[in-house]
Amino acid sequence: MPRPQHSRPPPHRGKAAAEPRSARVLLWGTHPVLAALANPIRQCQRLFATREAAAALAARLALLTGPAALPPIEILPRPDLDQMLPSGAQHQGIALQVAPLPSHAVEDIVALAQGRNPAVVVVLDQVTDPHNVGAVLRSAAAFGALGVVMQDRNAPDETGTLAKAASGALEKLPLARVTNLARALDELKAGGFWIAGLAGDAPRTLAEAGLSGRIALVLGSEGDGLRRLTRERCDHLVKLPQSDLVESLNVSNAAAVALYELVR
Known about the structure:
Elements lengths: L24 E4 L1 H9 L5 E6 L1 H11 L11 E3 L2 H7 L9 E5 L7 H7 L6 E6 L5 H13 L5 E4 L8 H7 L8 E4 L2 H10 L3 E5 L5 E2 H4 L4 E6 L8 H6 L2 E4 L11 H13 L1
Parallel strand pairs: 2-3, 5-6, 5-10, 6-7, 8-10, 8-11, 9-11
Antiparallel strand pairs: 1-4, 2-4
Helix pairs in contact: 5-6, 5-10
């Protein structure tokens, strides 16, 4: 179901992807740290490990095919590593200080769709929980989405918590932060994408809609769902089949189910 191509102005790059808010980010845990170290565009600054974790980490680093120059392992006692990171962080004895990833714009993700049909992009409308955003990134990577688009405001920064929930997907999937989500949806439409918003009050399920081709799957916030302007930009409003035993699915769970339905 290719989207009709209309004559539209070229996408407005402007401030589509905001500059990072912090000059450094602390990542922790085996999967996020190793994925960052293997990412050739990630600037890795300092690598920390407990003495117990250092030997195993060194062996894993020897297998990496990423950048040739990796930061040396700095040995820290576990209490010092615990104090460096947020309370309760499951760091598995390793942490990595990095610079934020370079920004992406919507047109960067649209460019990845060239020659690909079907293609899926995930759009998040004011999803604020970093655990949910990270889990959505993980599902998007698992089901072959081209990237994730989210707002710069009312959305979590790039943090270790988000990266931990993404389990390495943050390093592998383009994440575009935009100042105006409605404009971003227009840019996706100009790139040949149909916009499908998940809404509990939608008239039909995602399966019943039978969507194909290039699809931008839009998910709303954990509490309020899709905002009015976002709903108005959607070509389709769809829902997931669900019993009356629960009010709604967590947004990251809904993303996983919907992505599976789109690619199966």
